[in-house]
Design goal:
The structure holds two protein chains of two kinds.
Chain A lengths: L1 E8 L8 E8 L4 E5 L6 H9 L6 E6 L2 E5 L4 E2 L7 E4 L11 H8 L3 H10 L15 H14 L4 E5 L7 H18 L2 E6 L11 E4 L5
Parallel strand pairs in A: 3-9, 3-10, 7-8, 8-9
Antiparallel strand pairs in A: 1-2, 1-4, 4-5, 5-6
Helix pairs in contact in A: 2-4, 3-4
Chain B lengths: L3 H29 L4 H15 L2 H12 L4 H10 L7 H26 L2 H9 L4 H9 L4 H16 L3 H7 L9 H10 L3 H28 L7
Classes of the chains: A alpha/beta, B mainly alpha.
Chain lengths: 208, 223
């Protein structure tokens, strides 16, 4: 279980309101976060991943303290084993599809399985600028999964996918997340897009 | 025509560029991450050779390298190394003089990369060094080449600093730019022209090569 009890100052608002979040995410659960731009959705994901720090509070994952403002504990992102799918994909322009996954893991069978899941097995030698938007987005998801994360954070992960691929990918991804027991938090502004995932919904609009 | 000044110049430029690749890259990376007063001061010091008259820099380096004072005295007393009027002294002076040409472009290129590239690498468990080596550095290749060529070309054209530190010792510190000056002083314009043409040709070819390389590095937008 991952327990998040933090306070974030939102820089996008002039009067700098803060966002207080006190939430438990059960192991293997899927949580969807909705809310308008600037409401702190991405900031929350980055803080959980260790890519940013909250103003105060505590984050504990399976009994390990990742962040504690009081005790000045802030575990580096490298030690949190969190998969992160960036809204901008953040793919490495110098690496091919295969190299992206090999950079993340040395498990060849797992790479094969992932390539099949993302339907990228015929594009292993392509670099990101030779992939379509949807293919890039799938690669970003596969790369995050490659480390077999304890927690998967996805920021608008399906926005560039066409409906047919989205349906297949979400169904298979959901199965995989359940099999691996990966706790998942998905940020989106489109609730309909995430309907197939099931799970709990947190609406950020009411939290600011 | 005595070719030794040309070879000496190429040797000096080559060694300076290699040393600056080793020193300048980690330094540019460090400077590219965040801002602090100490980084601003250090960056200003590195940039000084761009705006200072070479003779001023050469004068202070001459004082610093002198076996009678500070660093020069310590090196002389401890390791029996003399920097003034020697090739190692020229290398050290060239490294200091050409540093902004290596550090500046590399630092700017690193700052222009989206922060999410490094962040993605960190979430994959990679250290800062692995991220720099396998993600950041390969994605600034054109800037890296430009920086290396600019450093090389700038070292080829050094005059004031090398004259102050190295003087004009044939085969030791007499680089091509000094040979041009020396030939003009002796009214041997034909020889001065020969050295100048060689320097002009080398730098022109280098600059053209960089332009062509950068043009054909048809990179897609970084995503």
């Amino acid at each position: 279980m991952i327990s998040v009890d933090i306070e974030i100052k939102l820089k996008t608002y002039h009067d700098r309101p803060s966002l207080k979040i006190n939430r438990q995410f059960n192991t293997g659960s899927i949580t969807k976060i909705l809310g308008p731009s600037g409401s702190g959705k991405t900031t929350l994901l980055k803080i959980i991943a260790g890519l940013g720090s909250p103003e105060s509070g505590k984050i504990v994952a399976d009994g390990v303290t990742w962040f504690d403002a009081g005790q000045k504990i802030n575990l580096s992102p490298q030690k949190r084993n969190v998969g992160f799918v960036f809204q901008s994909y953040a793919l490495f322009p110098n690496m091919t599809v295969q190299q992206h996954l090999e950079y993340a893991t040395t498990d060849a069978d797992w790479i094969k399985q992932l390539l099949k899941l993302g339907q990228l097995d015929k594009l292993v030698n392509h670099k990101p600028d030779h992939l379509s938007g949807g293919q890039q987005q799938r690669l970003a998801i596969l790369r995050a999964l490659a480390i077999k994360p304890k927690l998967l954070l996805m920021d608008e992960p399906f926005s560039a996918l066409d409906s047919k691929i989205k349906t297949t990918l979400i169904a298979e991804l959901k199965l995989l997340l359940t099999q691996l027991g990966i706790t998942t938090i998905i940020v989106s502004h489109n609730l309909k897009e995430l309907e197939m995932f099931g799970g709990e919904v947190i609406d950020f609009e009411g939290l600011i | 025509m005595d070719l030794s000044p040309i070879w000496l110049t190429l040797k000096l430029a080559g060694i300076t560029t290699l040393l600056l690749l080793l020193i300048g890259l980690p330094f540019a990376w460090w400077l590219s991450k965040g801002r602090s007063l100490i980084k601003i001061i250090i960056e200003a010091i590195i940039t000084m050779p761009l705006v200072l008259p070479p003779s001023v820099l050469g004068f202070y380096l001459l004082l610093a390298f002198s076996p009678q004072h500070g660093l020069g005295k310590w090196l002389h007393d401890t390791f029996d190394v003399q920097l003034v009027f020697s090739f190692p002294g020229l290398i050290l002076a060239s490294v200091i003089y050409s540093m902004p040409f290596m550090v500046g472009p590399v630092k700017s290129a690193l700052q222009q990369l989206p922060a999410s590239l490094a962040e993605a690498s960190y979430t994959l468990g990679k250290t800062e060094w692995q991220t720099f080596r396998y993600v950041l550095l390969p994605n600034i290749k054109p800037s890296l080449l430009t920086a290396a060529v600019l450093t090389f070309a700038h070292t080829l054209g050094e005059f004031g600093v090398v004259l102050m530190i190295g003087g004009n010792i044939p085969g030791v510190t007499r680089v091509a730019s000094i040979a041009v000056y020396d030939s003009v002083e002796k009214m041997d314009y034909a020889l001065a022209n020969n050295y100048s043409l060689v320097l002009f040709s080398i730098t022109f070819i280098l600059v053209i090569a960089v332009f062509i390389f950068n043009k054909y590095q048809a990179k897609g937008p970084i995503v």
